[in-house]
């Protein structure tokens, strides 16, 4: 069957390379083994090396601009010399506000190569949120693409101080960065110009999504950039012949660092559309002749819901790599689109361990081979579903989960030779401290809290369950919102959904509520019947809210906090609200009178 899938995907009966599991891990280890031995070698040097070997081969491609390796190295060197001319060294930060395009990578690679830190700013932010991201970076300069001028103007009144603004593109504001760069030398930097920047220094600030408040700025060192690039190049078996389609935002750790650096590390090419588009996706995959694409789970769901395209199997894709592809759509996705291999992984921007599903087990996010247990020390500990706090035994230490038990995943903080991995934290020391769990399995040890609930099966595979705080208790049972949401979005007529728990006066725990975006095919009878077949009784949503749209981040992480605050009060939401009758299972509208009955305890669920 796999051979047939490969043949459909390539239009050829020639088998594609598929390395063994052992060779995959060994290649990743090999590509990252020399990082510590070469402390002054940065990722810009990786690009420079390929530029010397294959200057004309395409490195970064897009509809508007393409950089060969020679052109990319030259552009990196210009940004580096621009930074040197302004005295940007260690301790100086430049905010980058630019849509996804090849120049984005050249910019941060160049500035960071001479010691500066580049803060990668979400181009969708405006006003106070945008100002917050610039302020926490303590930025001295902002590089501003012409398309982002309006957004920055909304933030200016809220800034603690206004950095020097450098404009790229016609119609910009501030100093002309295009002209400044054009006047600079493109040759490799001398050792004097490079200075003594090491892999220990901070290269980037990458922000959390801000799903539960304002974004936090995570520190990312040169070491981690090299490690991410090398690990993923090895695990993806990347080569100079690969061309990766990267439609994730470049201000994100996966879209902006992991995906492009994995291909650049191997001398391959990266295709960078400005944004993800269901309509253009397969046209781009075929048109750019891509062999790999980077996904997140929600992107895969959108593609599955789209009408069939004549190009969706007429491609040379050998691999899809990403995170968040749930087990309920894994095989349907691979089968419909003729994807020969899927490499699912788990990682977090600020995290100190990663998981990789090299074997391609549907629904799993990965496992840790015994030979790498020292390098990725991870565990799962029991947490209280209501408070989200770790459960401790009589000895005051945390309690590890057995196979099949759900708990929070944690990673030991330390160094590889001392049974741990570093945690680089955030710009805010208080936020950094909140992520550290101490006295876990021994007095004095320290582990990073991921905030992710996971389960490990008998074969050692980790499975993502939910975020801590998203899982809630109802009728004495733990309800995982991710599981409920997957079932809801498989229902006819449901375009999008967000599931969460809401407080009901007089009831223990939180009742399930789902905010839905629906089309004309939706009806509550079908909805109720569908969920009854998929979910246990305690997990069935009690309340439903029909919305025109749902707010999410650019990586499709849902923003639930406002939905939770508004609950099921018809005077607050302004959207149609419904409740499920516990006797009949039918859904009925929530009027002000019904709401009062629920709040007064006259209506029981």
UniProtKB/TrEMBL annotation:
It is a multi-pass membrane protein. GO terms for molecular function: ATP binding; long-chain fatty acid transmembrane transporter activity; long-chain fatty acid-CoA ligase activity. One of its GO terms (biological process) is long-chain fatty acid import into cell. Pfam families: AMP-binding. It is found in: Cell membrane; Peroxisome membrane. One of its GO terms (cellular component) is plasma membrane. Belongs to the ATP-dependent AMP-binding enzyme family. This is Long-chain acyl-CoA synthetase.
């Amino acid at each position: 069957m796999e051979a047939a899938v490969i043949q459909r995907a390539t239009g050829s009966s020639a088998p594609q390379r598929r390395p063994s599991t052992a060779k995959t891990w060994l290649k990743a280890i090999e590509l990252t083994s020399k990082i510590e031995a070469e402390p002054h070698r940065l990722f810009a040097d990786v690009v420079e090396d390929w530029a010397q070997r294959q200057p004309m081969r395409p490195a970064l491609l897009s509809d508007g601009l393409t950089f060969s390796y020679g052109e990319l190295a030259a552009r990196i060197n210009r940004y580096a010399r621009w930074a040197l001319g302004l005295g940007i060294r260690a301790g100086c930060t430049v905010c980058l506000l630019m849509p996804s395009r090849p120049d984005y990578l050249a910019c941060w690679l160049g500035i960071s190569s001479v010691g500066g830190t580049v803060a990668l700013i979400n181009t969708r932010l405006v006003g106070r949120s945008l100002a917050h991201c610039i302020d926490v970076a303590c930025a001295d300069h902002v590089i501003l693409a012409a398309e982002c001028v309006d957004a920055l103007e909304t933030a200016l009144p809220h800034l603690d101080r206004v950095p020097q603004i450098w404009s790229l593109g016609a119609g910009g504001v501030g100093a002309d960065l295009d002209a400044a760069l054009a006047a600079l030398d493109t040759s490799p930097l001398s050792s004097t110009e490079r200075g003594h920047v090491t892999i220990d220094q901070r290269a980037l600030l990458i922000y959390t999504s801000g799903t539960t408040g304002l974004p936090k700025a995570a520190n990312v060192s040169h070491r981690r950039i090299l490690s991410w690039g090398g690990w993923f190049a090895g695990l993806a078996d990347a080569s100079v012949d690969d061309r990766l389609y990267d439609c994730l935002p470049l201000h994100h750790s996966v879209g902006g660092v992991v995906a492009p650096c994995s291909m650049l590390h191997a001398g391959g090419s990266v295709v960078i559309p400005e944004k993800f588009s269901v309509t253009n996706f397969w046209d781009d995959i075929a048109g750019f002749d891509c062999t790999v694409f980077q996904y997140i789970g929600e992107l895969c769901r959108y593609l599955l819901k789209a009408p069939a395209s004549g190009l969706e199997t007429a491609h040379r894709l050998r691999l899809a790599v990403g995170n968040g592809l749930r087990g309920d759509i894994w095989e349907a996705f691979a089968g419909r689109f003729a994807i020969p291999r899927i490499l699912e992984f788990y990682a977090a921007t600020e995290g100190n361990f990663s998981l990789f599903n090299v074997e391609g087990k549907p629904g799993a996010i990965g496992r840790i081979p015994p030979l790498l247990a020292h390098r990725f020390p991870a565990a799962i500990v029991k947490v209280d579903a209501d408070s989200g706090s770790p459960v401790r035994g009589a000895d005051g230490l945390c309690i590890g989960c057995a196979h099949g038990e759900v708990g929070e995943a944690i990673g030991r903080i330390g160094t590889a030779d001392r049974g741990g991995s570093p945690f680089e934290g955030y710009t805010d020391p208080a936020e950094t401290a909140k992520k550290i769990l101490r006295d876990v399995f021994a007095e004095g040890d320290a582990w990073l809290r991921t905030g992710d609930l996971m389960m490990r099966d008998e074969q050692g595979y980790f499975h993502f369950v939910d975020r801590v705080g998203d899982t809630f208790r109802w009728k004495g049972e733990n309800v995982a919102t991710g599981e409920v949401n997957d079932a809801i979005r498989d229902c006819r007529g449901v375009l999008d959904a967000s599931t969460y728990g809401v407080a009901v006066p007089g009831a223990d725990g939180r009742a399930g509520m789902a905010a839905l975006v629906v089309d004309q095919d939706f009806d509550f009878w079908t909805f109720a019947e569908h969920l009854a077949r998929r979910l246990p009784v305690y997990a069935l949503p009690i309340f439903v809210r029909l919305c025109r749209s749902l707010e999410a981040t650019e990586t499709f992480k849902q923003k639930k906090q406002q939905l939770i605050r508004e609950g099921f009060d018809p005077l607050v939401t302004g959207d149609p609200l419904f409740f499920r009758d516990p006797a009949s299972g039918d859904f009925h509208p929530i009027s002000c009178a019904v709401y009062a009955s629920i709040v007064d305890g006259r209506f029981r669920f």
